[in-house]
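4.2 Preliminary Data

To establish feasibility before requesting continued support, the project team ran the inverse folding procedure on a target of 306 residues. The structure was first converted into the token representation described in Section 3, and no sequence information of any kind was made available to the design step. The complete token record follows.
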């Protein structure tokens, strides 16, 4: 596997000037100067938790505003507005569930991993082309690995009950529920993300951007809003919140986390009437769930008690 320095040299040999790397190089030099802090065994878990909460906060504002400004509720996928107190209680309960799992599972596991890991801090930053290519490659690989793992959890009864069922307690999702899962599932997603970056052979800067984007996409998928500026509106290859909300309603299909192509190719794609489901309070999706889940051979159709 080519190292990042070799790839940068290859690009330079083909006429890619170093001028387009000045900004990235300055950023990378600043990060390398903080190597001792960045290699702290507790940093990855703490950073992941706080970034998740920070990126969820705009959707909490949306939830609160929806209690007073009905127009916002037009963009809800399948849930009517609720009293502010009930909304805040759901968020607080979910926050503590995630916090406890991070404290008892993710933090010790990531600290152990960091203590045996030997991180490499190359001198050169990646070029913009390499950075973008590596992030896209990581997203595509993670999407494929997650699809296989997610499909397997839904098809194997004991895996569903022991690992994945906790996530499906949220039939109606909101942003914070992106990481409201069992400790085993949270660990497995961390492993898939780290494996994707390792297989691609990312520069550390590319890997950091991949993890940030991965967190944001998971939050957007669970946010419960079909917003006009959402990524799936700009790039139709992404499924977005309607795509994943359908999975939580029906308990099957739409297994890929971000892109649509694996579900199309494997015959697990659920076509969601997004406009009808939004304008009629989710009745279309509920009818689809009643029709399809009863006849489904997916183990979660019988096992889930949510």
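Position-by-position output of the design step:
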């Amino acid at each position: 596997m080519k190292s990042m320095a070799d790839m940068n040299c290859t690009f330079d040999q083909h006429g890619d000037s170093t001028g387009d790397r000045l900004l990235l190089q300055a950023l990378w030099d600043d990060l390398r100067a903080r190597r001792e802090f960045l290699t702290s065994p507790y940093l990855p878990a703490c950073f992941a938790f706080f970034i998740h909460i920070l990126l969820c906060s705009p959707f909490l504002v949306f939830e609160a505003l929806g209690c007073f400004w009905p127009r916002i509720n037009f963009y809800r996928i399948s849930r009517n507005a609720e009293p502010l107190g009930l909304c805040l209680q759901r968020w607080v309960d979910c926050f503590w569930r995630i916090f406890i799992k991070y404290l008892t599972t993710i933090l010790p596991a990531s600290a152990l991993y960091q203590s045996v890991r030997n991180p490499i801090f190359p001198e050169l930053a990646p070029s913009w082309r390499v950075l973008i290519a590596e992030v896209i490659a990581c997203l595509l690989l993670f999407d494929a690995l997650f699809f296989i793992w997610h499909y397997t959890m839904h098809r194997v009864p004991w895996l569903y009950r022991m690992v994945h069922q906790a996530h499906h307690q949220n039939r109606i999702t909101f942003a914070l529920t992106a990481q409201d899962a069992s400790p085993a599932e949270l660990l497995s997603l961390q492993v898939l993300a780290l494996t994707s970056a390792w297989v691609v052979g990312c520069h550390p800067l590319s890997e950091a951007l991949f993890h940030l984007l991965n967190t944001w996409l998971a939050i957007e998928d669970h946010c419960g809003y079909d917003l006009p500026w959402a990524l799936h509106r700009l790039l139709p290859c992404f499924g977005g919140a309607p795509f994943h909300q359908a999975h939580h309603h029906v308990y099957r299909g739409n297994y890929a986390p971000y892109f649509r192509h694996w579900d199309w190719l494997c015959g697990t794609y659920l076509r969601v009437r997004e406009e009808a489901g939004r304008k009629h309070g989710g009745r279309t999706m509920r009818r689809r769930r009643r029709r399809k889940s009863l006849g489904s051979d997916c183990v979660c159709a019988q096992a889930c008690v949510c």
